[in-house]
Amino acid sequence: MTARKIAAGLFVSLDGVVEAPETWHFPYLSEEMGAAVGQMYAEADTLLLGRVTYEAFAAVWPHQTGEMADAINGIRKLVASTTLAEVGWTNAALIEGDVVAAVKELKGRPGGTISVAGSISLVRALLGAGLLDELRLLVHPLVVGAGQRLFPDGAAPVALKLARSVTFATGVLDLTYQPA
Length: 180
Hints:
Elements: E1 6-13, H1 31-42, E2 44-50, H2 51-60, H3 67-74, E3 76-80, E4 92-95, H4 99-107, E5 113-117, H5 120-128, E6 134-140, E7 160-167, E8 173-179
Parallel strand pairs: 1-5, 1-6, 2-3, 2-5, 3-4
Antiparallel strand pairs: 6-8, 7-8
């Protein structure tokens, strides 16, 4: 039995900001980006979300229609949160206790790809624990100037190797990294 793959996908600006992409990424949304994001969900059988991302997604996606909405609404969703008491979105469940331990145990079970969307703190924790197999960054050609960065000042070094790169017509770079 092979371990499941854990893949994270994030929108990021040139200055490393990953916070609130809904305020800056839409001018770069294209068919190419839509296909790339759709592929991330299509390859997954589980969507792993932090509380903030879960709340943002749960406020929007249940009210959407179409292929991507059907994929996101139908997929199994696990939510890492120490503050939520319950989740009400279809196919969603809370992770109880130590998130890293729960994800490590989940990774060892049979199944497909576990996709992490957004969820900056969760991505950092999984990367630090050596559980992330793939980090996919959609790097937007703009400087946001302020906001939470993927790797904050003082972050521990993380060695990654570039596994794949594509440039969209909008100037967005679709970069896939794996642990070095």
